[in-house]
Write a structure and sequence with these properties.
With 153 residues, the protein is of the alpha/beta class. Helix content is 41%, strand content 20%. It is built from 5 helices and 5 strands, in the order H-E-E-H-H-E-H-E-E-H. Strand 3, helix 4 (87-95) and strand 4 (100-105) form a beta-alpha-beta unit. It starts with a helix and ends with a helix.
């Protein structure tokens, strides 16, 4: 059962993480993972800071949650992210067995959860996710627009 109030509250925390990335000069994407209403991990993009192209918010949140649970299978978990996951992050979601994905803004240039493809719901894979999109999409998109506007000026 989808609880939009909880989804909104957790997405606000993800946006707070995205703001932290923005403040560091990183692409402002934030993510967190919950299970049974408890936040297991929070992260934001650190690709530039870490000189690591895999240091996306979603991947970092998955790593932290897996460490905390001491299990690579994140069964019963929901990942919240401010931007539709790319192919790498969508693949990590499937491999980690996360059960649900909630995201804010769509990413028409690299999103793989509906925009360019839909990796997390592909029937050929051994795991699929429930997906809820558009939660606080305007707030998520505004932060990204502001970041890229400032980068161009």
């Amino acid at each position: 059962m989808v609880d939009y109030e909880s989804d909104t509250n957790f997405m606000e925390k993800a946006i707070s993480q995205a703001q932290r990335a923005y403040d560091l000069g990183e692409v402002p994407v934030g993510a967190l993972i919950t299970r049974k209403g408890e936040v297991l991990s929070e992260a934001h993009n650190l690709t530039g800071s870490m000189n690591d192209p895999t240091a996306h918010a979603e991947v970092l949140a998955i790593r932290k949650a897996s460490e905390r649970l001491r299990d690579w299978r994140l069964v019963g978990c929901t990942l919240y992210t401010t931007l539709e996951p790319c192919a790498m992050c969508a693949g990590a979601l499937v491999l980690s067995r996360i059960e649900r994905l909630v995201f804010g803004a769509a990413d028409p240039k690299s999103g793989m959860v509906g925009s360019l493809g839909n990796l997390v719901c592909d029937d050929r894979l051994n795991h699929r996710l429930e997906v809820t999109s558009g939660i606080l999409q305007d707030e998520s998109a505004d932060l990204l627009r502001s970041y890229f506007k400032n980068r161009r000026s």
